[in-house]
What does this fold into?
Amino acid sequence: MNTPGHRRIGVIDRYRDLLPVTENTPVITLNEGSTPLIESPKLAGRLGRGCRVFLKYEGLNPTGSFKDRGMTVAVSLAAERGANTVICASTGNTSAAAAAYAARAGMRCAVLLPSGNIALGKVAQAFVYGATVISINGNFDACLNVVRDLRGETNIAVVNSINPDRLEGQKTAAFEIVDELGDAPVVHVLPVGNAGNITAYWKGYQEYNKLQRATRTPRMIGFQAAGAAPIYLDRVVPSPETAASAIRIGNPASWARAKIAITESGGAIDIVSDDEIFEAQLWLATHEGIFAEPASAAAVAGFLKCTDPSRRCGSCPLAQLPENSTVVLTLTGHGLKDVAAVLDRRPAPVPAEANKAAVLRLL
Ligand code: F0G
It folds into this structure.
């Protein structure tokens, strides 16, 4: 599978037996999945005691985020059921994936985006893949409410994670991690917005454990942005605020299931500030050469916070790791999706004359 000389295949063909597809399902794929699991000795150094840390870089999926895993399954099954239109609410990445897979399937796509709150690269993707882009006067939660009302309309398939097919596809990331490491990690860290991904990973890890392909399930740790932290606060946040626009969500669809994942796994839900998110994004780029979008950096920010000796809290799963533990962090989306978030916070390029001496002076 996906070894040298072999073509990279999509997640439906890779994990067909564990997905709700049949031989009659038309496979709509862009060869998503099989993303790199990059070891980070620098992050592991913060844990010591022989621990290893890996980054599952989902930004290298075909549309630049983990959403492609769920979308290949959701759009394939929608096509099988005869839908001709897919629709979703989105903070940007779901809409990019829906638009691409709908284009591939020859279906129409409409995306509902909160007005003014979407990273430019993601809007560009929805347009370029040919979706009808609808700017809703309201936040993501309002967009999702409209989409809920559209469920059941003839020929329309809702491809948000309220559609269980999405989570089926997304659970394949957990399968890949276990297949590559030989077992489940001891801790899995990821950002939480609408809470579908933490739910999907937990499902994947549980299924592999039941099938005895993993000897354990990891403790799941989710990080929300401090201004958009309904699960952490245990209440709806009517006006969520964070510069990590992908996770600016105040009433997550998979809230209850995310809580189950956290509780059953012995995990935790915690928050990080926007400043911590952007520091972590830069840390990751400057120390590991990986450019992830701000929402993804929330996981790294959380890891950096929880492994800072001056801030460590006693109940954190990362504070009580057995020796030689493996930790995986999911980097959910590519940094190029939201360049404004970076450029707004970086100094401008340094000007120089077009000669060697002028450049050497700046080194
Ligand atoms: N990271 C990125 C880059 C995302 O786009 C999202 C969600 C998340 C993390 C959180 O994942 O919702 O499963 O808890 N983006 C959705 C969207 C909401 O519309 O693209 P989650």
Observations:
- The longest helix spans residues 196-210.
- The two ends are 45 Å apart (CA to CA).
- The mean pLDDT is 96.
